[in-house]
């Protein structure tokens, strides 16, 4: 059975690692940092279109209709509404309040188990926070993974639409062809856009919904190109071809930036993990050296302040190596 000191150090280590993951997450997925900016741009576009709100999808609307009155009221709360939006970006099937209840209940259960074995209120709180943080980190990772997949497939999808337009297809039929030719989450999003076009008979509204579901610079550029072409005219196939070339060059540059910044990310992880590795080595070789640090209240305070300092340092390093593309 592990001692309370070892468990305490393990929890601090896990907390620092999780916080570091949260700090470095935008570095690995730059498009996530643009989501707020794109949503602001979407509100302006929807205001110009005369819409006060944009439906995320017909699927989301059908989910709301299946809920009880109490569930729909919960979904109107701003925090839960934003959580539902994030769940839809990650392609989760549950609603926001379901995910929140699941996370809270799981955190409470793990905290109760910790209290049963350790009976330490401070450690119990740490376990509760870490469990809740794991749910949030899992959601962020799944969202970023799905958005990265869509971004990677987007140029190929635009190529399918361009060839269809050059062959004489209408824009709606070109979208339908893309849903048949492509696979993965991008095909699903194009299919939802095709359904929205047929349902609302409004391409602009369907494009705004597409941007809402795929908050990326590439999707915004595609929707803007289509809307501008429909208002002013022009060769849409040629515009999409130019857009595809720009997106591919942007991906190429992003990969180059990621390669060049790999040394900085590796240095960040080394700086974060090095104190724990050294502490473990000293603890295994001469445990008496760390007795004052792990066995006294003053030592626990020093460890906590050290964790805070490492978190601030990790945030500072992430700001240095973060490059928006």
From TrEMBL:
Topological relation to the membrane, as annotated: Multi-pass membrane protein
Keyword Lyase tagged: no
Entry keywords, A to Z: Cell membrane, Membrane, Transmembrane, Transmembrane helix
Annotated ranges, domain Type II secretion system protein GspF: 159-283
InterPro entries referenced in this protein's UniProt entry, alphabetically: T2SS_GspF_dom (IPR018076)
Location in or out of the cell: Cell membrane
Highest taxon in the source lineage: Bacteria
Primary site of residence: membrane
TM helices/strands, residue ranges: 6-28, 99-116, 122-139, 266-286, 298-317
GO CC, any one term: plasma membrane
PANTHER family recorded: INTEGRAL MEMBRANE PROTEIN-RELATED (PTHR35007), PILUS ASSEMBLY PROTEIN (PTHR35007:SF1)
Protein name: Flp pilus assembly protein TadB
């Amino acid at each position: 059975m592990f001692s309370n000191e070892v468990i305490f150090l393990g929890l601090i280590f896990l907390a620092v690692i999780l916080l570091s993951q949260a700090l470095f997450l935008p570095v690995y997925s730059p498009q996530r940092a643009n989501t707020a900016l794109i949503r602001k741009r979407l509100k302006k576009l929807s205001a110009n279109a005369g819409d006060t709100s944009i439906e995320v999808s017909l699927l989301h609307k059908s989910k709301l209709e299946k809920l009880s009155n109490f569930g729909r009221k919960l979904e109107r709360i701003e925090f839960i509404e934003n959580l539902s939006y994030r769940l839809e970006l990650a392609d989760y099937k549950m609603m926001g309040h379901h995910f929140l209840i699941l996370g809270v209940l799981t955190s409470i259960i793990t905290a109760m188990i910790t209290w049963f074995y350790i009976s330490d209120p401070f450690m119990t709180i740490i376990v509760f926070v870490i469990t809740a943080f794991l749910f949030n980190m899992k959601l962020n990772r799944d969202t970023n993974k799905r958005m990265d997949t869509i971004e990677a497939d987007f140029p190929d999808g635009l190529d399918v639409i361009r060839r269809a337009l050059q062959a004489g297809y209408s824009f709606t039929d070109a979208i339908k062809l893309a849903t048949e030719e492509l696979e993965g989450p991008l095909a699903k999003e194009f299919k939802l856009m095709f359904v929205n076009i047929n349902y609302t008979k409004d391409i602009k509204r369907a494009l705004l919904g597409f941007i809402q579901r795929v908050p990326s610079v590439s999707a915004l550029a595609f929707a803007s190109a289509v809307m501008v072409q429909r208002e002013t005219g022009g060769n849409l196939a040629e515009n999409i071809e130019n857009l595809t070339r720009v997106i591919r060059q942007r991906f190429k540059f992003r990969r180059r930036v990621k390669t060049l910044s790999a040394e900085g990310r590796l240095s960040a992880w080394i700086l974060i993990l090095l104190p724990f590795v050294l502490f473990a080595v000293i603890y295994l070789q001469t445990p008496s050296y760390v007795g004052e640090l792990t066995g006294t209240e003053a030592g626990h305070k020093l460890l906590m302040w050290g964790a805070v300092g490492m978190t601030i340092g990790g945030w500072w390093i992430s700001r240095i190596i973060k490059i928006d593309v």
